[in-house]
Amino acid sequence: MDQIRNSVIARSLPGSNALYSSSIVSNEQGPLHRRLDVVKNKQEFPHLLERVWVKKLVHELEAKNPKWFEWTPFIKFIWVILLNMHMWGCIYYLIASIDPDEGMSWTSGKKDFFKQTFKTKYVTSTYFAMTIYSTVGFGDYHACSVAEMITCMINMITNTGLSAQVLEQFIELVNERRRRKKKSAPLLLGCDVRNVTKETMEIVSNKEVIAVNQDLLGVQAKKVRMEGDAEIWAGPLSGYRVAVVFLNRGPQKHIDITANWNDIGIPPKTVVQARDLWEHKTLKTPFVNKLRATVESHACKMYVLKPVA
């Protein structure tokens, strides 16, 4: 029965089709480098977001609910555009405030612009920047002075590049989501289903293990360590989680297997919560820097690690 469970594990790890039979860990099967920057590149996140507070907000959403993993990239695209509009709106307001003659400024479209409330001035400046970005202007507001014209030309040039990048990444994101859905391995039961025992059916129909196989991230798991008959497999999941498998291939009844955070790609000193997928329970004690488990002969244990601090 443990062999059946091991076979299910082999096909449930993200992107994997079967366990490697080699007794040597190759370079391709080496440590799983799941740093945050690698995951972001995989998710096609805009690099402009690396230093803004929205990164922390989105990270928390993804960590609490993996379903947010599909939508957070779209939130980030919108945030990039709004951040760009805010920056250019402030620049246009600064240029207008330097010239005391409102008749020779883009603010001439609104009477007594500088006597308005802060909210009105901010929205008007951002609106002017948005009309340039979306190329629907110029209408009620337009550049008047030479400085404003030069600034508008620079703005349009930079916005052309930004629009192209956002559109390209948006299309790539949509295509990537389609590829991930297609990439999820189909689940086939290679036995006579008429004679399947209840215990076997419970193993092959484990919803939590199947969820790992069908995870949205679609990154293949790797063998990250092997010592004798003990093996550790790990793969990244959506929501900054990690799937880990401890496997005992040998006849030794009990083997203590330890997975260090460096082996499975979790940052040092990260506190994680471990979910036992075979026992269907979350371990009460959080883990820091490593996870240790005792595995019986020809058996395995499978966990999903979720960062909590």
Quick structural gist:
With 309 residues, the protein is an alpha+beta fold. The protein is built from 9 helices and 9 strands.
Keywords:
18% strand; alpha+beta; seven-stranded antiparallel sheet; single chain; Immunoglobulin-like; 41% helix; 9 helices; 2 domains; 309 residues
Shape: elongated
Count the DSSP helices: 9
Please estimate the helix content: 40-55%
Global structural class: alpha+beta
Radius of gyration: 27 Å
The CATH superfamily of the largest domain bears the name: Golgi alpha-mannosidase II
The average pLDDT score comes to 75
Give the count of structural domains: 2
The CATH architecture of the largest domain is Sandwich
Oligomeric state: single chain
Q: Give the amount of beta strand, in percent.
A: 15-25%
Total DSSP E strands = 9
CATH top level of the largest domain is Mainly Beta
Pfam families: Ion_trans_2, Melibiase_C
Enzyme class: hydrolase
Domain Potassium channel: 95-174
Transmembrane segments: 74-95
